[in-house]
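Amino Acid Chain and Its Fold in Token Form
===========================================
Purpose: to set a sequence beside its fold so the mapping can be learned.
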Amino acid sequence: MAKLSLGSTFSIFHSRHIRPPLAGCHVTEMTVADHHPSLEVVGGARDRFLPSLHTNLRLPYNPFPLIAWNRHVETIFASFFRSIPQVRLRRECLRVKDGGSVALDWISGDHRRLPPDSPVLILLPGLTGGSQDSYVRHMLTKANGKGWRVVVFNSRGCGESPVTTPQFYSASFLGDTYEVVKHVGARYPEANLYAVGWSLGANILVRYLGKESHACPLSGAVSLCNPFNLVIADEDFHKGFNNVYDKALARALCKIFKKHALLFEDMGGEFNIPLAANAKSVRDFDEGLTRVSFGFKSVDDYYSNSSSCDSIKHVKRPLLCIQAENDPIAPSRAIPREDIEVCL
């Protein structure tokens, strides 16, 4: 199967919430007013890719009764009541160059059932997420049902991935992504590689696409609910009801950290291990551990230099970005619209 080398990006913005998601030429803006007054499509890939979505884009939008009236209700409802598809997974632990480890979860039996040139989809979950999460499972089973070979990239400590060095992953660190993509590509050299990322995973994915640019081995990618600008996302995290999400993610980070706390015993320098272990916010965790681990002077320095908004203009592979206008975690004002519109 021939490898794809198209380079286009377009984005879809919807005024309704889409929590669990291609950057390109001569971008124009279109609003589908007749049936989807809330749907906005921006991007030069519109004429290339949108014809295949023609029917779906013109279906009337019917919000879910009672739930869809509020973005926080939608988010919480999905977290507690979304079904979790049952699927058997086969785990592969990959040791990376610095001695760290990540876990790759493949659907059991696919290495025998699917031909070697079946397209491969790499899934990058959001912060603290992994192959156990419902949104990941739904994408995994849906793609697999279409004949795709799917693998979940569980970052260090996520999805029960082993932690073998005193370092977790971060928005700034692309080393593990490089090695995972290289490893998966070497295992299936006849297949086209694709990736989907959610939230922080989307931020990491877009940064990877921008860094690799023309040399990127992926044939295409999808970014879902990308915060894009982590400074802005952090500002909004501390406003009103968003504090609930901040505290929930902080608890999840602390839970992962405490499982591996012995690795961080006697860490000196600027590390503040008690702050990280008892973090009340994601920012606390990043102040105590993350920004020090990756050599940043401050949390704001870490957020500023780890944002994918600066990477969009360098992406040269088909990239679809799907955002919700009212997403409480990925603010609409952080979307790099100008860079999307000038991207070639």
In short: The two ends are 26 Å apart (CA to CA). Confidence is low (pLDDT under 50) at residues 1-7, 15-37.
